[in-house]
Specification:
single chain, about 200 residues, mainly alpha, 7 helices, about 50% helix, about 10% strand
Length: about 200
């Protein structure tokens, strides 16, 4: 009788142990499942944030068109647009315009000023330029330091000063802006007038 009681107690303890072990395994499985779900959720959230960041807005440039165009004014153009696109935006050339006064293939940049000269104006100034001649001039708003150094009377120090001024204050709007650069006087500006293109 004593042995039978012991056997029954051992059997009961064995069943209880199996139940506890089974419960622990089941809870652990649920825990892993929740962790995997959370990981997937976090991954999806990060992916969504990356997608939002990737959708950057188009870059636009604000330009000012003056002179012999039908609708002079300030316009907004997408990055990569050319001067010809700006002219079209401004209604095209007037009948008095001299198309050779601008480089239609040039890319626009922010704060760019495009001045379309009239034929009469250029004839009076004696400044009708063929495009091949303009290629020899330095576009001061886009030139590198080494390109600026090729200008007469401009050494490494002055070239760097011009470059730094442009980077800190924005593009030059006329030759007269050069007098604001340290080391550049009015005589230097007059000497450079025929060797640079601004804007």
């Amino acid at each position: 009788m004593m042995k039978k009681d012991i056997v029954l107690k051992l059997a009961a303890l064995f069943v209880l142990a199996l139940f506890i072990i089974s419960s622990l395994i089941e809870n652990q499985g649920r825990s892993y499942s929740l962790e995997e779900t959370n990981d997937r959720s976090n991954a999806e959230e990060i992916s969504d944030k990356q997608d939002v960041n990737d959708k950057s807005p188009d870059v636009h440039h604000v330009i000012d068109i003056k002179g012999a165009v039908k609708k002079p004014g300030v316009y907004k153009l997408k990055s990569g647009a050319r001067v010809v696109d700006a002219i079209e935006k401004a209604g095209g050339f007037t009948s008095e315009a001299e198309p050779l006064s601008v480089n239609l293939a040039e890319k626009v940049y922010d704060e760019m000023v495009i001045i379309v000269r009239s034929k009469e104006e250029l004839e009076l100034e004696g400044r009708i330029h063929i495009h091949s001649n303009e290629q020899d001039k330095v576009r001061l708003n886009r030139a590198s330091i080494s390109e600026i150094e090729t200008l007469p009377g401009i050494g490494p120090a002055k070239a760097e000063a011009i470059f730094r001024y442009r980077e800190e204050h924005g593009p030059f709007h006329s030759e007269q802006d050069l007098v604001n650069v340290s080391g550049i006087g009015k005589k230097t500006v007059e000497r450079l007038r025929d060797f640079v293109i601004i804007p």
